[in-house]
Amino acid sequence: MHERYLTDADGNQIAVVLDLDIYRQMIDRLEDFEDAEWARDYELRKAAGQLTPDELETMPLDQAIAEIEAEWRQQGRKAG
Prior knowledge:
Elements: E1 4-7, E2 13-17, H1 20-47, H2 53-56, H3 61-75
Antiparallel strand pairs: 1-2
C-alpha cells in the first residue's frame, strides 16, 4: 500500500491520500466487520430475550436471501 500524507505548515501530518481501490477495499472490510458485529450483538440479545418488538419482526439476511431466491425460482427468474 502506498499512501501519501498531507502536512500543515509545521510539517505535521494532517491527512492521508490513498489509492481509490485501496480505499474502497478498506470501506468494504469495515462494513463487513460492522455487519458481523451487529449480527453477533443481535444473536446475543436474542438469546437473552432482550430484543425490541421491532427487532423481533426482522429476519437474518441469509434467510431473507434464501426466501427471495426461492420465490424467484418459483417465478422462473434467475438470482444474481
